[in-house]
Write a structure and sequence with these properties.
The complex is a heterodimer of chains A (616) and B (343). By secondary structure, chain A is α/β, with parallel strands linked by helices. Chain A contains 20 helices and 22 strands. In chain A, α1 packs across α7. Chain A is globular, with a radius of gyration of 26 Å. In chain B, α1 packs across α6 and α3 packs across α4. Classes of the chains: A alpha/beta (616), B alpha/beta (343). Bound molecules: thiamine diphosphate (TPP), iron/sulfur cluster (SF4) and magnesium ion (MG).
């Protein structure tokens, strides 16, 4: 650890690691953020990778990036604009230059700026030489040649390809030096990861140390930065991605409800990691079933729910479309089911690896008939834990499908999570039939929730039949009676509406009576919150309402809206939540601010928009 | 209403499985006989009533669970296989039956059908093959014969039909049986064998739809011709059939042929002995493909091979993971790995 250098203390810093998709930038970024959080920084991360796994090497379409935002405190998003860009080749530089702060630092591998590399990135002249980067501070490190040299010297017998794979560790070593970080976490990581291949342990450690020493001794880095530990609330922390958090939230719900987990799923970006995570936990009893398609994914889960499991299914936009008919079945059969939709850019295959709040309308209405379900949305990676837990709780207690919306930005993004104790989580009481339920019939309802009682195969005396055909109220027998259908349709709607009584009231950040109320929902929380917080600190009359409960909306929503002169709904789509508000709370006028670029909002662009609106 | 739980204390009979719902198939529909045969099968299986589940898709046949006084779920078109798979994985102790039609499982549900069979989850599939879409009033199905004229094929169908058994064996199926809806005793025997077999058991029932495809299986099932038209297979027994019990199946090179005992020096010795347990499905496939008029139609249990069952391995993996885990609890797991303390 470098301690004798001049260090500059900064509050927050955004670092973007970018390189070819084969360069291991995701790993480098994750290592840097893990080390920083162990050091005690607040962090938020965002991977940005190409949808083709192996796009042509060295080209712009093959650039993979990983952005890390570290700070002393108050890190709500992975950051808009990078302060430091690590560009492993010309293409990575070209693809990321416009998201680097003017006067920011560029660390490049000078060896990659040869004729071939420049051509592949479609540079006509070498940007390092033609003066176009005058505004930036450029560090030209011979990463490739030094990595090669330090490893070849060890005579490990590795081929050229394996040696070049260690380039990312060289760069990581440099960045550790620059930010005054200990190498220990990454040393441990390398030692465990390559346990079975000792020569790779040696090679990667050598590159890591060489990079660190290079940065330090040759003093190419003018001064090291230090970002002090965050002043978070006391407690035990760890890093968590949104997808991981969903899996863990479901595990916690299983623990508290006493119901075994069943996940039926079909791989789809960016949701697959939830399945990858949960299948690791067979020790916890999680049953994970990779089905033949999304329909079988949800249908196997519906079967498991009928049989008494805590059933979930995970997917992204196109998969949700395939699941529509089966969600309708779960609504009709009134079975508990959690559908996690990690949203991505649409329609159709759209932008698989990019984020978008694309599926709100699909979640609310994408089914035949009047078929309401609970819809909730998580606001940050660690929030995914809480809302996955709540999704399970609501499904089990209200006997209904619950759609949990997250997105690619949350699912892949990471942040610090204050580890929860399962016993401190709210209790979960599945609406199971028991001896105290008098005169039970399949559609007899709990008077508080209007949920029917769950009787599962294996329980003697409760043999019954359910299905997708309309049911006679209470008895659950098939019924084509006209009045009964209307009654049951209204009952299904009332049951979901009743959930209002069981969810928290909507809160506002900022003054209760003000000029402009900014409304956001789900995954934009970090950036919108950051922008409003900044403006409030600058004295602007602005308040913020973050919605996580989408259907039903919290009971006091209209009351809050009535206190502001203007309401502006910000979202990453054409205005789906704004339209939902227009349909459910039509008495207000909703302004919109939308972005549909497959990228998150930036704090700067939001602030500019809000300041302009306030001045109007 | 909750009924007294008698299942654990007294022997079950057929009427314990009759629900209070009025059966609404067309008068004369083959489904009635199948329902009755299933109700006759269950009491002898030694399963408690509450541990039996019927899952169906959509179609006339899929109304079946409503008429059974067990747990039941009438789901959506084509998806019964996937839903039944979930039921069984969630609770492997249950005896799970999938009831489906030729359209339900071979058209819209074809994908789930082959994958269920490939996985070998311990379920029993009752496939009601009436070679027609009954519920939607008479369109051709994936099992309708080529050239078949229906409302949706007034000029005759263009496509080749599936043979359910051939498809099942192609999907690595381990149990396949075929029975006509006209023989209650035979159905009960075969259903029992299907229930006892561990793994996915497919029973194709040649079912008559009186309204839209009456007598489609007549050539196989009619009283006058059935002895000559049916080869009833029993494991370990020679393949003999015919009114006079003098016809048999012999292997000639790589082909099957019908021979008459006593003619051209043919003796019983020359006939094939049915081996349902043969892992190699070659001969079983040849039997499945036999068709009138050249051959009799093979009935009974054609393939019955034991191999590992999906949910057994799943449960085993979970058991092993539980034994081997270093985590004492979920909280212990959350607190493991790279954590840091903020004071
Ligand atoms: C998604 C969907 N598509 C179409 C239908 C209409 N439909 C209901 S049953 C059926 C075919 C039934 O044929 P089969 O499975 O052979 O059953 P059978 O009525 O002959 O017993 C069709 C096409 C439906 N219910 N759902
Ligand atoms: S239409 Fe055919 S299959 Fe359907 S109930 Fe009537 S006879 Fe049976
Ligand atoms: Mg049919």
């Amino acid at each position: 650890m470098v301690s004798d250098k001049n260090t500059i203390e900064v509050e927050k810093i955004v670092i973007k690691f970018a390189g070819d998709s084969g360069d291991g930038m995701q790993l480098t970024g994750t290592q840097f953020s893990d080390t920083s959080s162990l050091f005690g920084n607040d962090i938020a991360t965002f991977p940005d990778y190409p949808s083709e796994i192996r796009a042509p090497q060295g080209t712009i379409s093959g650039v993979s990036g990983f952005q890390v935002h570290i700070g002393k405190s108050g890190i709500y998003s992975p950051g808009d604009i990078a302060d430091v860009l690590v560009a492993m080749n010309p293409a990575a530089l070209k693809a990321n230059l416009n998201s680097l702060r003017k006067s920011g630092i560029i660390i490049t591998d000078i060896d990659s700026f040869d004729k071939k590399g420049l051509e592949k990135a479609e540079y006509i002249t070498n940007p390092l030489e033609d003066g176009s980067l005058e505004d930036y501070k450029i560090i030209e490190a011979p990463v490739t040649s030094l990595t090669k040299k330090c490893i070849i010297d060890l005579n490990l017998g590795l081929d050229n390809k394996s040696i070049l794979r260690c380039k990312n560790m060289f760069t990581l070593g440099m960045v550790y030096c620059m930010f005054n970080r200990s190498l220990e976490q990454s040393e441990n990581f390398i030692t465990t990861k390559f346990k079975k291949k000792p020569e790779l342990v040696t090679a990667n450690l050598a590159a890591l140390h060489a990079g660190h020493n290079y940065a330090y001794t040759i003093e190419l880095l003018a001064s090291a930065y230090t970002v002090l530990p965050a002043d978070n609330k006391a407690g035990l922390y760890r890093n968590i991605t949104g997808n991981q958090a969903v899996a863990w939230g479901v595990m916690a719900a299983s623990e508290r409800s006493g119901r075994e987990i069943f996940l039926g799923s079909y791989p789809i970006t960016p949701a697959t990691d939830i399945m990858h995570e949960l299948v690791k936990h067979k020790w916890f009893g999680a049953k994970v079933f990779q089905a033949e398609d999304e329909i079988a994914g949800i249908c196997s889960s519906i079967g498991a729910s009928f049989a008494g499991n805590l059933a979930i299914t995970t997917t992204s936009g196109p998969g949700l479309a395939l699941k529509g008919e089966a969600i309708g079945l779960a609504i009709m059969a009134e079975l508990p089911l959690v559908i996690v939709n990690v949203q991505r850019g649409g329609p159709s295959t759209g932008l698989p690896t990019k984020t978008e709040q694309s599926d709100l309308m699909q979640a609310l209405y994408g089914r035949n008939g009047d078929s309401p379900a609970i819809v909730i949305a998580a606001g940050s990676p660690s929030d995914c834990f809480d809302f996955a837990y709540i999704a399970c709780k609501l499904a089990l207690e209200h006997m209904t499908p619950v759609i949990l919306l997250t997105d690619g930005y949350l699912g892949n993004g990471a942040e610090a999570w204050a580890i929860k104790k399962t016993k401190d989580l709210p209790s979960i009481t599945p609406c199971l039939v028991n001896k105290n339920v008098k005169d039970w019939e399949p559609y007899l309802r709990n008077p508080d929730t209007l949920a029917r009682y769950w009787a599962t195969p294996g329980m003697p005396g409760y043999e019954h039949r359910i299905g997708g055909l309309e049911k006679q109220e209470v008895s659950g027998k098939v019924s084509h009676n006209a009045e009964n259908h209307e009654k049951m349709t209204l009952m299904r709607a009332a049951k979901i509406e009743r959930v209002k009584k069981f969810i928290p009231l909507q809160k506002v950040k900022g003054k209760e009576y003000d000029d402009l109320l900014i409304v956001g929902w789900g995954g934009t929380y970090g950036t919108v919150f950051g922008a409003v917080t900044d403006l409030q600190a600058e004295g602007y009359n602005i308040a913020f309402c973050q919605f996580n409960y989408i259907n039903p909306l919290p009971e006091n929503t209209a009351e809050i809206f009535s206190k502001y002169k203007r309401i502006m709904v910000c979202e990453l789509n054409m205005g789906q939540f704004a339209n939902h508000l227009r349909a459910t709370i039509p008495q207000f006028t909703y302004m919109q601010h939308n972005k549909i670029q497959g990228q998150p909002f930036t704090i700067d662009e939001l602030k500019n928009k809000f300041i302009k609106t306030l001045a109007e | 209403m909750i009924k007294e739980d008698c299942s654990t204390t007294c022997a079950l009979s057929r009427k314990d499985f009759v629900s209070d719902q009025q059966v609404k198939w067309c008068p004369g529909c083959g489904d009635y006989a199948i329902l009755s045969a299933v109700q006759n099968t269950l009491p002898s299986l030694g399963k408690k009533k509450e541990d039996i589940v019927f899952i169906s898709g959509i179609g006339c046949s899929s109304r079946f669970p409503y008429y059974m006084d067990t747990y039941g779920f009438h789901t959506i078109h084509g998806r019964a296989a996937a839903i039944a798979s979930g039921v069984k994985m969630a609770n492997p102790n249950l005896s799970v039956w999938e009831v489906t039609g030729d359209g339900d499982s071979l058209a819209i549900g074809g994908n789930h059908f082959i994958h269920l069979i490939r996985r070998n989850i311990d379920l029993n599939i009752l496939l009601f093959n009436n070679k027609i879409y009954g519920l939607t009033k008479g369109q051709f199905s994936p099992t309708s014969d080529q050239g078949f004229v229906t409302k949706s094929s007034p000029h005759g169908t263009i496509e080749e039909p599936f043979l359910p058994g051939e498809l099942a064996l192609g999907a690595k199926g381990n149990f396949y049986a075929r029975v006509p809806d006209t023989n209650p005793k035979f159905m009960t025997e075969v259903f029992t064998r299907a229930a006892i077999h561990r793994g996915t058991s497919l029973v194709e029932i040649l079912q008559n739809c009186v309204i839209f495809n009456d007598d489609i299986h007549e050539a196989i099932t009619s009283k006058e011709t059935k002895e000559d038209a049916q080869l009833i297979l029993e494991h370990g027994k020679p393949m003999i059939f015919g009114k006079e019990k003098n016809k048999g199946i012999r292997l000639n090179g790589l082909k099957l042929e019908v021979v008459t005992i006593g003619e051209n020096g043919v003796t019983e010795e020359d006939l094939l002995i049915h081996n349902a347990h043969d892992e190699d499905p070659t001969l079983q496939l040849m039997l499945i493909r036999m068709s009138l008029p050249e051959f009799p139609v093979a009935l009974g249990v054609i393939r019955e091979v034991s191999t590992s069952v999906y949910e057994d391995v799943l449960i085993d993996q979970i058991k092993t993971a539980k034994e081997k885990t270093k985590y004492k609890s979920l909280d212990d797991f959350f607190n493991s790995g790279d954590t840091w303390q903020v004071k």
